Every structure is written in structure tokens, then in C-alpha cells.
Amino acid sequence: MRLCQGRLVSDGADPVPADDPGPWLTPGVRGIGGASLLADVGHEIPTSLLPALLTGTLGAPAATLGLIEGIADGLAGAARFGGGALADAPSRRRSVAVGGYASTAILSGLIGVATSVWQVAVLRSGAWFARGLRVPARNALLADVVPAAAYGRAYGFERAMDNLGAILGPLLGIGLVALAGVRGAMLLSIAPGLLAVGAIVYAIRAADVPTVTERVRLRIRVRPVMQGRLGRLLGAVGAFEVGNIAATLLILRATELLAPGRGTDDAAQLALALYTTYNLAATLVSIPAGRYGDRRDLIHVLEHAAVARLAPEDLRGSAFGLLAAIQSLGNFAASAIAGLLWTLVSPARCVRLRGWMDDRRARRLRSGIRHQMTDQKIVAPHGEIDLSTVADFREQIATATAAEPASLVIDLSGVSFIDSSVLGAVIEASDRARRAGRRFAVVAPHGSAPAVTIGLAGLRGVLPVYDTRDAALEPPD
Description:
alpha/beta, Growth Hormone, Chain: A, Transcription Regulator spoIIAA, three-stranded antiparallel β-sheet
């Protein structure tokens, strides 16, 4: 049994996929997931109570809430963009992650002592700036501690923990409000945030990542990230995020609708319960979606897993930074527009805008998944291929890959002879597929002339070879 480009191959049998990384839930993955859980518990308490503090205690209008959220998201986007450059260096990404988690916890909790709108705005913006700096570092760290074949599950787990924190945070907030009031609950939210710092430190120490002593120059890199399939993915994310209205506005709308019959306090608690249900749904689907993406090779099921798989390793921090910046700037536009629409037109129109945009996002996602499931190209020559005919073979490969498919299969089951020039063409196609983030497979039935030639050339440790086309087309488990 030999290792064939990430798959175990036994002579005379179909390859056994080694893309199943075994126990993918490593201490590093658990630590990062725990940090996301605890950090979200910490900052979701002040987030869920922010509408009550601003509009109830400080008397600010809804437009102010939308503007503060928009400014905070915009600053977070800028921080994530810069944080991406910082995260390109393994040593810097660790310190940035720790500092970002600590600063977010402290600044978010201090909103509880704010006595004016501008103080809330400064603390909220500062907390979100620190949160933005840490996001690319955390995402790059996660890619460091898990095999590529498990990116969907690892990032799905992290998202599930993040969303679970968004559930527990408001629930904890309900209890803390009853015990200590709105301001006291915000101050107490610092505690889980600081526990998140301990979790990320544990993840860093548990991760088997080599220490890099070479100094990596700090620089902003956009053009290399925006090329190819990764660039198209980021463009689509930007279009989606414009409709991602801040959840705080939805909480405010629920509070306004429930208040007339139940009172402000009861309405706020029911609104938090609805927000909890919203996050529960996201929690339940994150890991199954990631597992499905890993099994079916659907890299667009989770945005973070897609970026981790498509981005070159030395650009991974910049890619995550640009993704997060695009998300935040899209949220800035969405929050500002929604706040103005809420105040100048009606809250109902604002909420309907969110519903319409969510529907469009879902339709686009389903379309993208259907496209990726069928986005396979097969090159299936017949007869003998040698130096005199290899040019035609290369042209077939070039034609098949011109549209940048998600996967390429070279089926040699109908070929009776190949020479070294054909092997060279296949190896070149495999290398190009790897650089483009494209799945690649070769069909050469056991005992056939191509299979024998590949074996004699010692390429079973280089090329993923399958006995049948069906086996080659089946995504790794």
C-alpha cells in the first residue's frame, strides 16, 4: 500500500481515500472553537443589550444604532484587512489573535459604564476594531492545525461554536439583566471574553506548528488574492453582504412589536429569545454543512473553508483579511442603509429588505452548489498516444480546463499504449490542477497498459490513479 497524492493506493484495488484525516478534532481545533464560543458569549451580551441601552436608557433614535453599528463594522473591516497582512506571518498571527481577543472582551464590557452616545460609539468601534484584527489570525491558525481534507468540518465546528456562543450569550444576558441590570450585565460580560483568551493560548500551545524564525515583511497584498477562483468567490461574498442587515436592528424591531402588549422588559427578553432561536438554527447546520462540503468537494459551502483551500499558504492571512474586510464593508453599507430606511420610510420595509436579500443569497448558494456538482471535465482519449500524437492530447486537456472546472479527470481506460511524453503531459496537468485548487484524478484500470506504465515509472506515489471512472468521479469521504 502506497501514498498517492493524499490517497492510499493498494495494488489491484481502487484507491482508498486518505483525505479522511482521521481525528480532525485536535486540541488546536478544540481550542480555537472554545475561544470562538467564549468570545461570542462575551460580546453577544453587550450586543444584544445595546438597543435597550441606546434607545431606552440614553434615548437615541434607531438611526443612531444603525450608524454606530455601521461605523463599527466599517472599522472592523479595515482592521481585518490590515490584520490579514499581519496574519501572513505565523509568529505575528499568534500574538495578534491573543491581543485581539483580550481587547475585544474589555472594550465590549466597558460599554456598560458609558454615559453618553459618543462613549458607546467609541467603545463599540474600538471593540470591533480589535475583533477585526484577530479574525484573519484565528482563521489562518485554524488552517494550520487541520488537514485540507477536513477544512469544511474544522471551519464548520468553529462556526458552530461561534453561533453557540451567540445563543448562550443572550440567554446569559437575560439572567444577568435580572440580577445586575443592563449595565451590570455588560460589565460582567468581560469574564467569558477573558476565558476566550485562555482558550486561544491553549490552541496555540497545543498546535503542532513549527516556529518560523525568518522575518516576514509586512505588506498589503490584494492583486494576488483577487486572481482566479478565489477572486470570484470574494466578489460574490461582497455582493451577498450588502443585504446582511445588522441583527441588532432585527432585535429592535421585535422589541417594538412586542412592547405594546407586554411592556419593555418582557418584550426585550422575548426579542432575545427569538435572536437565540435564529442562532440555534445556524449552530445546527454548521458542522453538517462542513462535512457535506468535505465529502462532496463543495468548497463554497462555507466561505472560510473555501478561502483556506483556494488561497496559497503564504497568502492565507491576506486572503482571510480581504474576505473579512469585504464582509464588514458590506455590512457597513447594509446597516447604514437599513437604519436610514427604518427612520425615513418604515421598519417593516427595512425588515422586508433583509428577507428579500436572504432569499437571493439562498438562491445563489443553491445555484452555486448545483453548478459545482456538475462542474467536472473528463478527457477520455482512445487508442495509442505517443510522441507523435501527444500534442492533440495536450490540446484536449487545455480545452477541458479553459473554463476552470472544479475537477478534471483524465480517463485512460480506452488507451492501449502511452509513452513518457504522455506521462509528462499528465503530470503537468496534475500540477496545474493543484495550483488552481482543482480536484484531479486519472483512470487507469489495473493491468492496463497505462496502469503498468504509470507503475513502472514510479508515479503511483505522484498521481491519484483509479481503476474506474465512477471511482475517480466519487468525491473523497
